[in-house]
Amino acid sequence: MITRRDLLKVAGVGAVALLAAPGAVRTSFGAEKKSIEDALKEHLGKGLSGLKESNLINIKAPTIAESGANVPVQVSANIPVDQVEALYIFADENFNPWVATVELTPMNGEVFFATRIKLAKTSPVRAVVKMKDGTLLAAAKEVKVTVGGCG
Amino acid sequence: MATIGRAVVRVPKSASKGEVVKIQMVITHPMETGLRKDKKTGQLIPAHYITKVEFLFNGKKVTTLHTGAGVSKNPYFAIKMKVTESGTLTIKYEDNKGGKWEKSAEINVS
């Protein structure tokens, strides 16, 4: 799903990155690294304070990742899937902390999703479960990265 | 270079009615963020990543994935699905450059 906003964002990021030296912090022209707060607001309409910590959500990810380019993440939740609308994955320190949105249906049988993600550096990996009643349940797991993956 | 968009899908060949099965797939794709530079030319490599993956079973929506460039190169995705009848799982996926692909697999339910 690409919106006009996304396209503009990509174009903006590209323009700034062309000017920046390799490895330099990209700060000018507003194309800064997006904060987790902004990313949450963009995708969920609420920031960190709108999330409810839940121990029903289980994130399986390594404590220390050898490479940030390929970090396995598995999310499952002990919540009936027919009460769930979607599952979100965020990585706080990434240039764009939003990683994926998973729209679930009762046909899934259970709340489960696994993938491999990039981590720019040591960062919490967050899973947010959006319930049909609008409640946002969340869990986080800190993953230590020795070599970043968003070069 | 490997063909972009080629996918390998793994589903159980057979399952019992009401069982929750795991569906796994790997797509061959560079997943470029648009922030990386080509080391030889110094030019920025344009963003190129999977944006959407749809899982349908017998035409009914099971899961829709929206992804950004934060997913690793050659993305791996796994979901679960409760099966009550035999049928075809169809996976449709696309990237930000207009690439569109489809892959399907049969599941026998007894």
UniProtKB/TrEMBL annotation, chain A:
Pfam families from the UniProt entry: SoxY
Domain of life: Bacteria
InterPro entries: SoxY, SoxY_sf, Sulphur_oxidation_SoxY, TAT_signal, TAT_signal_bac_arc
Stretches assigned to the Ig-like SoxY domain: 52-150
NCBIfam families in alphabetical order: SoxY_true_GGCGG, TAT_signal_seq
Protein name in UniProt: Thiosulfate-binding protein SoxY
From TrEMBL, chain B:
Listed SUPFAM superfamilies: E set domains (SSF81296)
Sulphur oxidation protein SoxZ domain span: 10-105
UniProt-listed Pfam families: SoxZ
NCBIfam families linked to this entry: SoxZ_true
Protein name, UniProt field: Sulfur compound chelating protein SoxZ
Organism: Hydrogenivirga caldilitoris
Taxonomic lineage from the root: Bacteria, Pseudomonadati, Aquificota, Aquificia, Aquificales
